[in-house]
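quick one before i forget lol
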Amino acid sequence: MNELAGKHIVLGLSGGIACYKAAELCRALVKAGATVQVVMTEAAEQFMTAVTMQALSGRPVFTSQWDARTSGGADNNMPHINLSREADAIVVAPASADFMAKLVHGRADELLSLMCLARPIESVPLILAPAMNREMWSHPATQRNIEQLRADGTTVLDVGAGEQACGETGDGRMLEPD
């Protein structure tokens, strides 16, 4: 049996050109039998539309901590709590250098970072798929942040190597959705 069947995955998108891969990932998760709730940062909306992600997930997309829609029948206007409690896992793909730095320092100024911090750590794993330019990836601050995230119990996936949107070649590409 497929291990994703019946699972509820929150798919978070932070800003970066790799958001196009999140669309493929969303489609693959749904095809595998998972329900997918998409949450996008304002920066992610510069690269991918909520309409596209809603079409692929079959669910309304959340983009703001001020969203008054309820989730899971809760009528408390707290999507960061409700969405994180309903999840079997939170996957942030792409996870930008900025978003990862925000998590390391406990900053929660928008819905996705609020959810990551408000999730029950023991029961809702956080999985990050980094995506950034090769120089950003290799920067000592980014590498320190990754070490700290892993020490805090976050699963930080490796990155791929190859041609990047900026025209350079190297490490930092988000892994392929498969």
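fyi The longest strand covers residues 89-95.
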